[in-house]
Amino acid sequence: MKTRIEARVESGLRQARWALVALACAAAPAWAFDLHELMSLLAKQKQGEANFTEQRYVRGFDGPLAASGTLSFTAPDQLVRRTLSPRPETMAVDGNNLTLSRSGRSRSMTLDSMPELQGMVEAMRATLAGNTQVLQRYFTSTVGGSASDWTLDLAPIDARLASQVATLRLSGKAGEVLGVEMEFRGGDRSVMTISPKR
Amino acid sequence: MSVQHAGPSRGRRTLVLLLWLAAVLAGVAVISSTHFSADLSAFLPASPDARQRVLIEQLQSGVASRTLMVGLEGGKDAAQRADVSRALGKAMRASGLYEQVQNGDHSEWQEAGTFVFDRRYQLSPDVTPQRFSVDGLRDAVTDTMSMLGTPAGNLVRPLFERDPTGETQRIAEGLIPATSPRTEEGVWVSRTAPRAMLLATTKASGSDLDAQAAAVARIETEYAKATQGLGAEAPKLQLSGAPVFSVQSRDKIKGEAIHLAIVGAIVMGCLLLVAFASPKALVVALLPVLTGVVAGTAAVALVFGSVHGLTMGFGSTLIGETVDYAIYYLIQARGAAVPGTGWQRWRDLNWPTVRLGLLTSVCGFAALLFSGFPGLAQLGVFSIAGLVAAALVTRHGLPMLAPDGATGIGMRRHMARVASGIVQAMPRLRVGFVVLGVVAMALMAWQGGALWRASLSSMSPISKASQELDASLREDIGASDGGTLVVIQAADEQATLRITEAAGQRLDALVDEGQLSGYETVTRMLPSAAAQQARIASLPDAATLRARVAEATQGMPLAPDRLEPFVASVDAARNLAPITREELAQGPLAPVVRALMFERPGGGWASLIALHTTDRFDKAKLVAALAPLPEVQVVDIGAELGSLYDRYLHEAFVQVLLGALAVVVLLGLYLRSLRRLVAVCQPLLLAVVLTLGGMAALQVPLGILHLVGLLLIVAVGSNYALFFDQLQETGRADEDTLASLMLANLTTVVSFGLIAISDIPALSAIGRVVAPGALLALLLSAAFAKRRVR
Q1: Chain B partners of A67 at a C-beta cutoff of 8 Å?
Q2: For B666-683, what is each residue's pLDDT tens digit?
Q3: Residue-wise pLDDT tens digits, B717-776
Q4: pLDDT > 70? residue B1
Q5: What is the mean pLDDT of chain B?
Q6: B279-304 helix and B10-32 helix, angle to the nearest 10 degrees
Q7: B146 and A117: CB-CB below 8 Å?
C-alpha cells in the first residue's frame, strides 16, 4: 500500500506530464499553416503605417522605374498609398470611395463601378484586414511558408482583371505584409518592398 | 295676344337654328384640327424670370425630359440579368429611337475614345506653351511614367509612345463621371436591389408625346423579345423617367376625361329625367351644355393653338353650371297664360338674373386668364367661352325648341316640397351657421399660412409608388437629380463657350476644395475656338519638339527616339481643323453636347454645367465663386420651383381677390342697394369660410387649385343668392322656381362631386372645394333670406 505522500507525488507527476504534452503540441511547427490562420494573424493588426519602395520593370524601358512613399491602413476599409517620389500622388480608398490626387487635382470615384480596380484594391485591403471572404470573391489563393515567413499567391477570378494581371504575390512575417509583387500580362512586373514604421 | 305672338316666328326660328348649327359645326371643325397635349408643363408658369425660364425650357425639352431609366429586377441571377441587359441595350441602340443607351457596357465608348485621342491637343486643358518647354515635358513624361507598371497604368501603356505627356488621361479624368453605378458582370447594377440598370435618352423632344410613347413602348417590346423563353424566371421590367410620366399622365388624363364625361352625362341624364320625366326636355337641357363644351374647346384651340387634356377634364365642371341655365329656362318658362309665350315671360322676368349670374361667373373665371399658368388660363378661356355660348343658346335657341319650357312634371313637385322645406327650416339655423363660421375663422387663423402648404408636386398625377421607383432607379444610376445647375447664357455660341470655360475654371477650385466631386461641361468636348487656337499655338514644330524631348528625357531610362510617334502626333495636330459643334453633332459625342448646350427658343445660346456635389457642398460659396461672371447663374431646381409656386400662389391670391371684388362690384351695380348687396354677399362669404374651415379641420394642404375652387364657389353660389334676392323682391316663391334652384344645385354638386373623386389631384382639389361649397352656398342663401319668402 502506497503512502499518502507517494500518491500525492504520483498525481503531481501525472499532471506535469499532461502539461508537458500540451506544451509540446503548442510549440509544434505550423505544418498546416493555411489561409485561415494567416488571415486571423493579419486581422489582429487593426492599423498600420509603413514606408514602401517600388521597382517597376516595364518593357521598352532601359532600367527599372522606381517609386517610394508611405502606406497606411486602418481597419476595416481605409487604405492610403502616398507616393512621394518621383511624383507626389495619393490614392485613398475609404469604403466604396476612391480618391486620386495628383498634380494638384483630386478626383473621386466609386470603387464598385470599376470591378477590375476594386479587385486590385481588395488584394491589398482585404489581406491587410484579414477578410477571407472578400479576398476569395476576387482571387483564388495559395498560402506558402510558415506563420513567421509566409507568402500568399493570388490569381484573379474575374476574366477582365485576369486579362490585365497574371499573378499577385504578397509576402510577410506574422501579421505584417512586407512585400507585394505583381506580374502583369504583357511581361511588366512590379516589386514593392514594405517596411513598417515602429 | 294674337297667335303669331304665341311662339317665335317660323323665319326667325329657322334663322336662329341655322346660325346655331353653323356655329357648332365651325367649332367642331376647329376642334378636329387641334392638337391635344397633356404634358405637365401647362402647369408651369409662362412668364417667369430669366433663371426660371431656362429651368422651364429644360423641364419641357431638356435632356431630363428625354431620359428613360430602365430596371431589370429579380429573375434567376446577376448573370441572367446582365445577359438581358446586354440584349435589350443592343436592340434599343439598333432601333434608332434613342440618342444614347447606356448600361455599363463600355464598348459604346470606343468610338468616343478614338475621337478624344485623335483630338487630344485641342481638348486637353494642360496644353500650354509651358507644357511643351523642356521642363514641362520632363514633368509631364515623369508623371505619365509614374503610372506605368501599376494597375492604373494598363490604360496608359499602349498610348505612351504617342501620348507621353498623358493628355488623353487628362481629358478622360474630366469625362468619366464621379458617380457611376455599380458594375457587375460587365453591366450596371443597383447597389440596393437585385437589378440591372439601363439609361437611355430619346431622340424625340420631350414635348413630342406620341414619339415618347413609341420610345417607351419599344422598350417593352424589346424586353419581351430579350426575355423570350425565360418564362417565369425572367427579370421584371421597371420603367421610369419623364417620358414615362408624361405618357402615363396623358393616358390617365385622357381616360379620366372620358370617364368623367360619361359618368357625368349618365348621372345628369338621370337627374333630368327624374325632374322632367320627358326625354325631349332631357335633350333640350343638354343642348346648351354640348354647345358650351364645343365653344369652350374651340375657343381654347383658337387662342392657345392646342388644348390641354386637363382642360377637357374640366369640361365636366362646365356641365355643372351650364345645365343650370337650361334647368332654369325649362322650369321657369312654364305655366304661361297663353301657350307659346312662356319664353317671353322668362326673358323679361328671369333672364336678367341668369344673365347677371353669367356675368359674375365670367368675372370669376376671368381671374384665371391672368393667372400665368397656361393650364389655368386655358381653363379660364374654356369656361368663359363655354358659359357665354351656353347662355346664348339658352336665351335664343331654347325658346325656338321649347317655347313654354318643359312639359312633364316629373318629380319636381317633390323637389319643390323639399326645397320649400329647406327654405323654411334654414333661417332657424342662421345662428348655428354664424357660430360655425366664427369657429372656422378661428381655426383658419390658428393654422395661418400653414393652411396653404400644398406644393407644386402635389398637383402631379404621378402615383407615390411611381415616384418611389423613380427615386430608387435614379439613386442607382447616380444620375444627378438636377439639385443644382449652373446655367450660362450668351448671345452666340462662341461667347457661351468662352464663358462656360471661365465658369469651369472657377468650379475647378471647388473640386480641389472637395465641395464638388466633379461637374459636366460641354467645353470638355467642345472648347471655344479661342481655347483651341491657343492650344494649337502652344505646339512647337517637329524639329524643336524633337530637340526638347531629347533634353527632357536625359537621365530617364527612356531612349528619346522611342517618343518619335509623339513628335509626329504633335506635328499633325498643328494642322487639324478646329472642332466644331456641327462636327460633334455627327459623332458619338452628339448626345452629350446636345444635353449640355442648346439654342434658346427666344434666340441666343445657353449651356448647362451639371454639378456632382459632395456633403461638403456649400451653395453660397458656389454662388460667390461664380458671381464675377454676370452671364452665369446658379439654379437650385427644388428651391426655384418652390419659389415659382409660392409666387404663383401669391399671384393667385391677388387674382382671386380681384375676381371676387369684380363679382361684388357687378352685383352692386345691378342691385343698386347696399342692403341687398350685403344680403347677397353674406351667404357667399360664409360658404367660403365654412368650406375653408372644413378643409382646415380635415388637415387638407391647400394650394392654388383650392383657391380657384373658392372663386368658383363665389361664381356659382352668386346665382343662388341672386335668386333668393329676386324672390324677396318679387315675393314670388312658386314651386317651379324652388325646384329649379334645387335641381340646379344638385347637378352642380354632383358634377363637382365626380371631379372630387378623380385620381388627378388638380381636378380633385377643385371638386373637393366646390362640391361642398356650392351646397353650402345654397343652404346659406336660404338661411339668410328674409322671412318674406314663403
Answers
A1: 146
A2: 889 988 889 889 988 999
A3: 888 888 888 777 776 667 777 788 888 888 888 888 888 888 878 778 888 999 999 999
A4: no
A5: 84
A6: 50
A7: no
* B143, B151, B614: residue with CB nearest A103: B143
> Is the Cβ of A189 closer than 8 Å to some Cβ of chain B?
yes
> How many pairs of residues across A and B have Cβ atoms under 8 Å apart?
86
What is the model's pLDDT at position A42? 87
- Residue B223's nearest CA partner among B247, B256, B196, B243 is B196
CA distances from B433 to B89, B664, B712, B725, B784 (A): 65, 22, 21, 19, 10
CA distance B202 to chain A (A): 25
Q: How far is CA B606 from CA A42, B44, B487, B529, in A?
A: 56, 20, 7, 17
What was the ipTM of the complex prediction?
Answer: 0.77
Q: How far is the alpha carbon of B91 from chain A, nearest alpha carbon, in Å? A: 24
**In this model, does residue B481 exceed pLDDT 70?**
no
Cβ of B557 within 8 Å of Cβ of A65? The answer is yes
For B359, the grid coordinates are 356675368
Task: Tell me whether A113 touches chain B (CB under 8 Å).
Answer: yes
Question: Are residues A112 and B614, on separate chains, in Cβ contact within 8 Å?
Answer: no
- Taking the C-alpha atoms of residue B769 and residue B706, their distance in angstroms, rounded to an integer, is 6
Half-sphere exposure of B220 (CA within 13 A, CB side): 9
Peptide linkage before B125 cis (omega within 30 of 0)? no
Task: Indicate yes or no: CB of B614 within 8 angstroms of CB of A108.
Answer: yes
Nearest CA in chain B to A115: B183
B38 Cβ contact partners less than 8 Å away, ≥ 6 residues apart = B209, B246, B249, B250, B253, B254, B308, B309, B310
Question: Hey, are the CB atoms on B180 and A113 less than 8 Å from each other?
Answer: yes
